[in-house]
Amino acid sequence: MKIFAMRLCLAVLRFVYFFIKLRRPQGDKVLLVSGLSGEPIIDISMLAGELSAKYPGIEAKVISERMGRSMSGVFAFIPGMLLQMREIAGAKVVVLDRSNIAANALRHREGTKIVQIWHAPDAIKKFGYQVTDMKGGLDGRVAEVMCVHKNYDYILCPSKAVEKAYCEAFGAGPEKMLPGRRYGMPRIDRITEISRKGDELRHELRESILREHPDMAEGRIALYAPTFRDVRATKTEELVNELLERGFAPALKLHPLEEGGMDDSHSAMDWFAVADFVITDYSSLAVEAAAAGLPLYFYVYDIEEYTEERGLNYDLRDEAISPYVFTDAGELAEALDSDGYDYDRLKDFRYKHLECPPTGNTEALAGFIASLVSGEDPDESQDEAASSRPDSQTRADKTQQGVPS
């Protein structure tokens, strides 16, 4: 009955969309849809800003609205769905940060391009079609009926190392993957700003965070940001207590879908400006911290269970960063007290899983999107953009070369 209702709803949407396309002219427009929460993710905001600033002939419109999982949430989203259908019909390029019914399941005009940039810059844990019919994952029948992750022309892939995982997760071939060495997520540009001492953004964030948390001003700050667990709540108390006992100032930033943690107005990424260490587990925040050049540690107390229940695309214990992977909270806290962090290992981990340069990613991706709008060869336009990228280094890169950060 549920599947029949979904098929019927989809048929109605396709019928309505057919007439929307007849009435809605297509222009030089990019529609950026952020469906992770009520606010657009930073990559969508930065990309929209770059398109508006550098390409005045292109209209960049952002829509940020998420459909609820309950039946009432679905009905409440109907006006939002109709708005998305109308805007997609008038756009030459649609940019997404997660799956989207209107983009994935409807039949669009010939020439409309759909680009998936995803909301996470790595794939430590399995996702999408990799976790079909698993707890917390996709229902296989629903995914098939609703055409989840279909219609993509391009998918932003952070590195060759995770290309296979991305192909599996999105149900797409390697020919649709935008190479990470040429197209990075815009957030990497911001992370570089945050990680550079003397940068205005870094200074502003430090002042703002320490104003909210003055008790941390003199301590060694350990940012602890675990991933969201679909099966059970994250166990944080043991590690937090160990950190406190050793004189660290733990900043616990839980996933937005999980209750608890610090109540403040800053994202985990913002905390890179003040953190002395970063601790995570299977979260893509790991490669973001590596891009910032921050000493990175993993607390994977449940790695065997998590691998069995959810699945991992690679085992952190087999990576260059393996000396900093712990299952015991006490051993991890003790490691934070030791000297001689190996930044070579951090850099190897970063560039294996996140191939893009430290800066110029927003500009490069905006150039690619603009070329799709204009009908130019995107590869040719990107070759020109790549040759003009500035040379910038993160703290990890500078440490590698013996340059003080």
Description:
With about 400 residues, this protein is an alpha/beta fold. About 40% of the residues lie in helices and about 10% in strands. The protein has helices at about 1-25, 40-55, 70-75, 80-90, 100-105, 140-145, 165-170, 185-195, 200-210, 235-245, 285-290, 305-310, 330-335, 345-355, 360-375, 380-385, 395-400, and strands spanning about 30-35, 60-65, 95, 115, 155, 175-180, 220-225, 250, 275-280, 295-300, 325. A six-stranded parallel β-sheet has the order 2-1-3-4-5-6, with helices on both faces. A five-stranded parallel β-sheet has the order 8-7-9-10-11, sandwiched between helices. The longest helix has 22 residues, at about 1-25. The protein is globular, with a radius of gyration of 22 Å. Mean pLDDT is about 90; it is low at about 390-395 and about 400-405.
What is this structure, in a nutshell?
The protein has 405 residues and is of the alpha/beta class.
